[in-house]
Structure formats: C-alpha cells, structure tokens
C-alpha cells in the first residue's frame, strides 16, 4: 500500500511539474536569447509568459549602451531594487545579461486615464568580446522596436560611434518594422532618452551637448566623409522631437561596492538626480502603439515574434559596414537587369519607343531594388546612384540608337540617290517611270528609316528628290524631242532601204519635217511643251515606253535585236517562201519594165 501511494505521489508530482506555470514573477526573465554562435536571436518562453498574462495596455522601458556601462545597476535603481534582488550586475559575476531580459513584475501607472503596465528591459551591452556587430545591431534594433522609452546609457560623453550606432539601429528597426507591417506603415519610434553619466559638463548642459553632437557639420568643400557624417544625422530625423537629454552623476567613487551601499551611502546629488530621472521616465512614457492601437500582453508577444523572425531572416548589414556597401550587390544586379532588358531591343527605334522601353526597364529595376535593398534613409544614396548608373547606360543606348538610325537612313538615302541618278540617264526617258521610282524611294524611306536621324535625313531626302525631279523635267522634253527627231530619221532609213515600206518612209519624213520646220516656225521653245499636240505626243510616248507590263527602256535592245533578226530572215528567205506580195505597197523594182513593146 505504501509503495502504491508513493508511486501515485511521484506521478502526480511529475504532472504538476509539466503543467505548472511560473509562480514568482518577482525576478528577471530572459525573453530574447542569443544562439550559440551569437549571430541570431531566439525567444525564451519564460519571459514571454510574464508578458502574456498582462491584459492591460503595455509600455516598456529599455536601457541600451556599451558593455559594462552600468545598465543593469541603473535599472535596479529605477525599480528600487538591490543588486541581489533585481537584474544581475556585471562586476559581481560574469555578465548576467545575455540577449534581452525583462523584470517579471510590471509597474502599474495611470497614463492619460488608462491603467498601463510598464515593463523594464535590460539589454546585452554592445562592443564586448566574442560577438559579431550584426548581433549587437539586432539587439539594439529589437530594443528600439519594443520599447516605449529607450534610454541610451552613455558614459562621460557622446562619441561619433554612438551616434552612428543609434542611427543604424533606428534604420534597422524601421526597415524590419516595415517588412512586418507593410511598407506603407510608418515606423513609430520610441521616446529616446540620452542619459550621460558624468560629473562635470564644463559649463554646458547635457541637452546642449546632445544638440551639438547631432548638429550637421558644414561641408563647404563637399568632403565625402563629412557627407556621410551628415547623412547619419539626417537619418535620425525620424526621432523628431522624441528625444530628451538627462545627466546623471556617478553614484560613488568605489563602483565595485555599489551593490552593498544604501541610499545614504551614495552621493546625495546622484540620489536626487535618480529620483528626477524616475519622474522624467514616468512623464514621457506612453503605451506601445502599433498601427494606431495599444497592445496587451499576448498582442505584444505576437508582435515581438514577427519582428524577431524578420530580424533573423536573411542577411543584414552591420554598423561597421555601410548600408550603401551592403546595397552595392543589389544595385549591380538591378543595373544588370536594366541593361539586359535594354540590350534586347532591336535598334534603331523611334525616340518615343526607346523612351517608353527605358521607362519600363527603369521602373522594373527600381521596383526590384525597392524589394531587396536595406534601409530607407541610408538607401536614398544607393537609389540615387542606381538612377545615375541607369542614366549612364541609357545615354549609351541613345548614342547607339542614333548611330544605328544614322547608318540605316544613310543607306536608304544612298540607295535612293543612286536610283535617281539612274533614272536621270534613261535610254528612253519616261516621266511615269521616274515618278514610280520617286514614289518607291519615298515609301521605302518613310517606312524603313526610323530613329532620331529620320528628321534630318527626311529633309535631305526631300531636297535631293526635289532637285532630281526638277533636273529630270528640265531635260525630259528636250531629250524626248531629240529622240523623236532621231527616231524619224531612223524610220526613214528603215522604210527606204530595209523594209522598203513607202508609207513608213513617208510617215517618218512627215514627222521629221513637222519637228524641224513647223515647230520652229510656228511654236516657240517654251510654248511647244504646252501645246496639246505635244501633250498628245508625250502621252503616246509614255504609253509605248513604260507601263506596269512592259518597260521598253529595259527591253529596247533585246526587242531591237529580235526585230533585226526578223527583218534579215524576211529579206533572205521570206520572198522565196511567200512571194513578193506585201500588205503595204513597195517600191517598184521591175527590171523588164523598159523592154515592153511599144504600141503605135
């Protein structure tokens, strides 16, 4: 029986252990811990339980700063806890704070009539040995996103590295906040409290020190290093008026014994300023707002999980490596994307089409960069650089397009010029053939010449065609007149001595006499070409010389050879085979005519 009872008690104890929750929240719990390599972060269930149980709106105060700068001691002072009760203090033992820790019991405050639970967060100090910059930056950024009041705890003074690290943390937080909530959702930064721990400020208030440290540096000579310094300060503009400065003197000279001292042992000025700091934090803290809504415990944990997943996902730069350098590879890929798209174009193209292709390719490259780049404020320089590089590539494409356009239009212009020269020296001048060639040139040039050179070559083409047409018309009537005179004489010879058609000879003589005598006697050189008779001659000539079916200028020689062969054949063999009868009357060639008998 005892054995059975002891076994039952054993199993009940196991069950109670497995299903038990945290009973004592008066202690610090880790909520975010580093992985073994100190490169990424992971959530700790213990701390999340302390947050999830809260149903009120949540606000949080996070303290960030360098390694061994007194962050944990400061938090214990704000919570009115000793080192043995609150967060572990570094000089007592090995650094207790790894990742981000939370005090399990929140302070209840009435903020603007709303009961709010305020948690205090302790963060692992940066710049310690054995950690990567990326890890430090993730801790810094996560604290920036989580907190309602962010206390930047700095010993003695503000260094440029401190400003740079804060700037980068804000950029990092804004970036991953946007990745979780959407790019159209503005990042809502925490209230920033610059806490400078020093005894003497040499006549300057801590607020003046902060304002001077964040003031833009004049850069008359355009120094790139100063530009970078000012860019860091510009990126903190998102903090706006959310920052406050406060100084806190050293609590005691013997820092290693601070945990054993009561308030009466500490410097009175420190105790006074510490109480003022508590009042300041209570006056500026507000519930954590995400997308216009305050968060309770479960909503805060869900938001934290999303942010942490975004922070751990993919590669991010570190403070030591400029965001522009990190974005360089992305910039080069986007520039390559633009170049490849523009390289596929079949040049030359009209300027409007090329501009449209440029706009589309640039838009795609910019969208790709927006999806991949890191940072919003720092990345502005990278965006500007990408646009400048795209414009350089585009200018080269424009020059290439102009060259290809000029080359194509020049070739078409030369072809048309050669065609006009050939039409000027036709063996048989034809206005119809000249006009057909001119229209062909115009049509081919209008449809094939494209690009920026077209306008210039259009003017040259119109000038050349007009000049060619004027020259052709000027020579056309005179050449046609000479051709008709020569034709009449040739037909006289053919009709007289070759075919011996008396009507052909007579018609040729009439044409010759008309051209050489009548026109010179009764028509002037100018009026000849406007006479209806001449127009009839020209129309007849054009009908014979050129038509879509027969181009006599091209076939004149072959046809002449064929006719000559036919005449020779007829002269040699035609009479023997068909006799001497002709359709037209021939010259009489009767040798026996004189020996006819005479009649009385």
UniProtKB/TrEMBL annotation:
Signal peptide span: 1-20
Family label: Belongs to the TRAFAC class dynamin-like GTPase superfamily. GB1/RHD3 GTPase family.
Pfam family, any one: GBP_C
Matches recorded under Gene3D superfamilies: Guanylate-binding protein, C-terminal domain (1.20.1000.10), P-loop containing nucleotide triphosphate hydrolases (3.40.50.300)
Keywords tagged on the record: GTP-binding, Hydrolase, Membrane, Nucleotide-binding, Signal, Transmembrane, Transmembrane helix
CDD domains: GBP
UniProt xrefs under InterPro entries: G_GB1_RHD3_dom, Guanylate-bd/ATL_C, Guanylate-bd_C_sf, Guanylate-bd_N, P-loop_NTPase
Recorded GO MF terms: GTP binding; GTPase activity
Protein name (record): GB1/RHD3-type G domain-containing protein
Domain GB1/RHD3-type G: from-to ranges: 55-175
Annotated TM spans: 555-573
């Amino acid at each position: 029986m005892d054995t059975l009872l002891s076994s039952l008690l054993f199993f009940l104890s196991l069950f109670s252990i497995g299903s038990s929750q945290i009973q004592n929240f008066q202690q610090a719990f880790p909520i975010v811990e580093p992985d073994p390599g100190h490169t990424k972060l992971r959530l700790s269930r213990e701390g999340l339980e302390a947050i999830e149980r809260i149903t009120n709106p949540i606000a949080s105060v996070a303290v960030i700063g360098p390694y061994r700068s007194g962050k944990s001691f400061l938090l214990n002072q704000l919570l009115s806890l000793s080192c043995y009760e609150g967060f572990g203090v570094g000089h007592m033992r090995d650094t207790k704070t790894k990742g981000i820790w939370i005090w399990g019991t929140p302070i209840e405050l009435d903020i603007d009539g709303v009961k709010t639970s305020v948690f205090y967060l302790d963060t692992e100090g940066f710049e310690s040995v054995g950690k990567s910059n990326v890890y430090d930056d993730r801790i810094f950024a996560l604290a920036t996103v989580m907190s309602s009041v962010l206390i930047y705890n700095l010993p003695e003074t503000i260094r440029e590295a401190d400003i740079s690290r804060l700037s980068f943390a804000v950029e990092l937080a804004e970036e991953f906040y946007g990745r979780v909530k959407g790019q159209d959702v503005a990042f809502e930064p925490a209230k920033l409290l610059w806490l400078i721990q020093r005894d003497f400020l040499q006549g300057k208030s801590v607020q003046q020190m902060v304002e001077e440290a964040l003031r833009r540096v004049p850069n008359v000579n355009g120094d790139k290093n100063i530009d970078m310094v000012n860019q860091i300060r510009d990126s903190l503009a998102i903090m706006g008026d959310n920052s406050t400065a406060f100084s806190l003197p050293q609590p005691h000279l013997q820092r290693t014994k601070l945990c054993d001292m009561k308030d009466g042992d500490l410097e009175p000025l420190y105790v006074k300023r510490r109480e003022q700091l508590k009042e300041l934090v209570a006056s500026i803290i507000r519930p954590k707002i995400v997308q216009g809504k305050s968060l309770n415990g479960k909503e805060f944990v869900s938001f934290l999980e999303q942010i942490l997943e975004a922070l751990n996902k993919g590669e991010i730069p570190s403070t030591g490596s400029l965001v522009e350098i990190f974005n360089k590879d992305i910039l080069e890929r986007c520039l390559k994307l633009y170049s490849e798209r523009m390289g596929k174009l079949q040049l030359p193209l009209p300027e409007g089409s090329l501009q449209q292709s440029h706009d589309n390719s640039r838009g795609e490259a910019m969208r790709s960069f927006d999806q991949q780049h890191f940072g919003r404020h720092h990345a502005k320089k990278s965006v500007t650089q990408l646009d400048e590089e795209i414009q350089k590539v585009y200018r080269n494409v424009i020059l290439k397009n102009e060259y290809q356009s000029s080359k194509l239009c020049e070739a078409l212009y030369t072809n048309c010029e050669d065609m006009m020269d050939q039409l000027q020296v036709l063996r048989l001048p034809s206005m119809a053939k000249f006009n057909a060639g001119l229209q062909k040139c115009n049509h081919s040039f209008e449809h094939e010449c494209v690009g920026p050179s077209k306008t210039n070559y259009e003017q040259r083409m119109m000038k050349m065609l007009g000049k060619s047409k004027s020259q052709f018309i000027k020579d056309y009537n005179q050449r046609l007149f000479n051709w008709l005179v020569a034709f009449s004489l040739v037909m006289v010879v053919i009709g007289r001595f070759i075919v011996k058609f008396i009507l052909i000879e007579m018609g040729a003589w009439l044409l010759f006499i008309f051209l050489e005598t009548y026109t010179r006697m009764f028509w002037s050189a100018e009026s000849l070409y406007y006479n209806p008779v001449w127009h009839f001659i020209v129309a007849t000539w054009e009908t014979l010389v050129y038509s879509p079916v027969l181009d006599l200028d091209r076939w004149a020689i072959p046809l002449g050879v064929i006719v000559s062969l036919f005449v020779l054949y007829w002269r040699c063999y035609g009479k023997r085979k068909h006799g001497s009868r002709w359709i037209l009357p021939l010259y009489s060639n009767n040798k026996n005519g004189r020996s006819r008998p005479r009649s009385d």
